[in-house]
Structures are given as structure tokens and as C-alpha cells.
Prior knowledge:
Blueprint: H1 15-32, E1 40-49, E2 76-84, E3 93-96, H2 112-118, E4 121-124, H3 134-155, E5 164-168, H4 172-175, H5 177-186, E6 190-194, H6 200-203, H7 205-235, H8 249-267, H9 270-277, H10 285-294
Parallel strand pairs: 1-5, 3-4, 5-6
Antiparallel strand pairs: 1-2, 2-3
Helix pairs in contact: 1-10, 7-8, 7-9
Amino acid sequence: MRRATRAGGKLPEDPDTVLFDAFLRIAYNIKIENIVEDLLVNSDQTQMVLAQGGTISYAPVGSKQVATCGMDEKRAVTVLVSLTNSGVLLPFQTIYKGSSARSLPEPDSPHYQDALGKGFLFNVSNTSTYWSTIETMKKFVDETLTPYFDRIVEEKNLPADQHRIWYIDSWSVHRSDEFLSWMALNHPLIIVIFVPARMTGFFQPCDVGFQRIFKHSLKQSAHEDVVKEVLAKFQKGTKPEAVSLDTTIKVLRNRTPRWLWVAYNKLNKPDIIKKVSMTWAPGQWKTYVVVIRLGSCAE
Length: 299
């Protein structure tokens, strides 16, 4: 017996047919457009909590209420993660709530300049939330996705009109007429294929195989910051019972570039990324996804 954690998403009436159709859609485009594995990219947004906390703590036996640091933390940012079928992790795009540069990490934040130099995007949402918007998606396509595709086409001496595949969630922003019309007008060579609705847990490599290890790395880095902060207070003579953590938004926000930089360098390895693509879906669907990754699905 297992305790219920949350309500599961409802599957389509015929999930096998939906998944098979999704596989065929990708396979068809790979075959017809001669898509090499470097030109197949999957992107997925995920939440990065600013005050990373645990869910386990010491408490007297029989305690009915146990609180942990950061358990009710709501402040967060959105990170857009993108994987290529050839085993490359593209630079992250991070979205912060706000409308000006003051809502972003300060320029002297640890590894902020390193991240910028590698192509990371740090953008504000210009809304009351930290979620991606049509404008932030346009920035990603213009400044990260398209330059990557163009570089691969040049390096592999592919035709200038070579098509590419971008595999993304069936989210309202992605599927909006405004965004798709903009894509068709400004980036006609990018074929946008959507993850089947309500099937993210079956046919979305970023979500199924990568986000967990990515978030684990973020939590490790956040824990390192807490340890350093506490030890520094001890060294100054602060008594354990008097130690308090600085959880102001400015401090936490300035730590995020280092968390992202560490995760990028730790996880941007072909063996990790390709292992992710091989765990897209359970059971029989592994066969289809592995074949797609090898680029021979049309056979």
C-alpha cells in the first residue's frame, strides 16, 4: 500500500493510439526532412524555488506538527531547459518576476558573468508572475535556439534550407495563434511538434528523465550556500540558537546563477543526456523513442 501524494493527470481515452501517433509524427518529419539528431531539440519549463528546503527534520516522537525551513516557500523563477537528441544541453533561460533589470541577479553575483558568456538568458517576465510568456519564448528562439540550429547546419555542411524540429509542451502560450504565426513568419525552417496533451509523463524526455536530476543539483548547491552561511556565523562567534538565515529576495536571487552554472557543467554530458532520451516512456514505448534517438525511425 502507498499513500496518495497528489491527483494524477487524466490520460486520454486511448493513450496507446495517442503515443503511437506522436511517434509517427516525429518519425515522418525526420524521414521526409532528413533531420539529423543534432537538429531535434526538446524544451521544457520547470520551477526553481529560491529558498530550497527539505521535507524531513528532527522532532520529538509523537509530534503532530513538524515544520521545516522553506516548506511554505512560494518565491521561485522559471527555468527553460532544452536537450538535443545528440546529447547536448543548451544554455538555460531563466525568467524572474518583475519588469526591470533590478529584478535580475546583480552583475557581480557568483558565476553570473560566466553564465552570460556561455549564452544563458536571464530575463524578466514583465508580468506579475515568473512564468514564461510569448515575449520570453521569442527571446529564447531568437537568441538561443536558432543560433544553435544555424551553427549545426554550418558545421555539418547541410543545405541552407535544412529543416529542424522543436519538441515542446502543448501549453497555451506555445499553441497560441500569436506565437505560432510569429514562428511561421520568422523561423519557417523550425518544425514545431507538441507533446501530446496530458502525456508529458510518457513522451517528454526533459520532464521524465532530466528535471529530477537537474533539481537535485540545484538543491545541493542551495544546501552548500546555507552551510557556508551558517559556518561563517559560527566563526564570528554566533551561538547556534542565535543563528538565522538571510532569506531576503535579493540574497537568494543572487545565488541562482551559481546554482544554474554548477548544474549546467555537471549535467551537460552526452552520456547523461542520451540516457535521458532512452527513458522517455515506459514499457513498449522505449522501443520507439530509442529508434527515434538513433535517427533510423523511418526504417
